[in-house]
Amino acid sequence: MSRMLLHAVLQMPTTLWGDSLLDKRQRHARYCEASKVIIEQDAVIKTLEEQQRVMEMQLASYASRVSAEVSGVNTN
């Protein structure tokens, strides 16, 4: 199911819900699918945050070296 359709199903007002067993099973399947998407996105976010932290440290290190070179100080 596309993310947009999944979102629409999850936002559906309860007044539109059917009471049949099939409808309840389909809704439950959408809830499970949404949960899976959230877990997957959390993992991606965690990875991106870790990459950002590493890149920020690298940038600070490079900036320090460039600043030292501009000042004429040897960092080695």
List keywords for this structure.
78% helix
Please tell me about this protein's structure.
This protein has 76 residues and is mainly α. The protein has one domain. It is 78% helix and 0% strand. The chain is built from two helices and no strands. The radius of gyration is 25 Å and the shape is rod-shaped. The relative contact order is 0.07.
Q: Looking at the chains present, what oligomeric state does this protein adopt?
A: single chain
Structural class: mainly alpha
- Compressed to H and E, one letter per element, the order equals HH
Main sheet? none
Low-confidence stretches at least 5 residues in length (pLDDT < 50)?
A: none
Rounded Rg: 25 Å
What percent of residues are in strands?
under 5%
Task: Supply the number of helical segments.
Answer: 2
How would you state the average pLDDT, rounded?
91
Shape: rod-shaped
Number of domains: 1
Q: How many strand units?
A: 0
Helix content: over 70%
How far apart the termini lie comes to 56 Å
Quick gist of this model?
This protein is an all-alpha fold. It has helices at residues 3-10, 21-71.
Write the layout of secondary structure elements.
Layout: H1 3-10, H2 21-71
Helix pairs in contact: 1-2
